[in-house]
């Protein structure tokens, strides 16, 4: 079998040298600074994989995490591949995590002590991809309580020696010590945000259920808002934030009388004025929170009925006086409301909704948001199919 780790292979990086101590320190300081400022688990894992790869000068580096609920090891980030999941205990990663011990292998194809683990992992992957695994270094990492929660797996040393050393073990062990604690922090942040998301969806569903609207309405509005946010150029973090917050747009309906929410015909002027108060009620429920998600939800709650031309409510804001979150949620909410049955109307046909949006571009709706809506219409329609009434 041709050895793709050799320097004479044209599609493989040239052999390199080990880092000098000051270079190693610079790499560690650079990555620890980046990791400390990250909230996203996926990005933390990517930074850690990159850090490990540079520290030991490997061709690839994978960060494996333990998923105890599913009895699996998983990696969202692995150089050269997409997300991986393997059974708990499988491969070298599983062996290292189970024993808490590091593993050195100079040549995967001649190693006998770990033959079974290699055939479950690296050698099997080589057969599927054509890649040639030679040297491997696997080091477990632990959380603050000392429990093993994952491991680094470095593949193919890219220096002339072609094998990992005791120095690599020390250096990657240092990275693993920091990584375990950083991942634990990122997982905690993720758990907190997932809990907040569940609470927000539940509260949003309560608000909608008061007016006989389905739970899927808030899910669809969340997905539409996310698609539009990305379509308008917002970054991933901000799009995710709006997706989590937009389900709360009608939370203020919890304070609106059933006689108004469930009225099958048009509202009187007095009733409509009372209905409009749900925007400020929602804002007042949320405005004092220090959480990013709920602060964003407060903006959405109070502004999703404002109009680009200044004729909306509750404050008659005009144009860019309306926060972009409010402008996005406005069109997401109207699209879903018009396309759904309500106590006071039947669902509109799609073409009728699209024609209204064309007419209301620059009137009710921000022209840029309307354009993003039409640009992303296939994705928006697929959301409705995925979350039907």
Automatic annotation (TrEMBL):
Top-level taxonomic group: Bacteria
A Pfam family it matches: HD_5
Name the record gives this protein: HD domain-containing protein
Organism expressing this protein natively: Paenibacillus oceani
Keywords, sorted A to Z: Hydrolase
GO molecular function, one term: cyclic-nucleotide phosphodiesterase activity
GO BP terms in the entry: cyclic nucleotide catabolic process
CDD domains, A to Z: HDc
Domain HD-GYP: residue ranges: 192-389
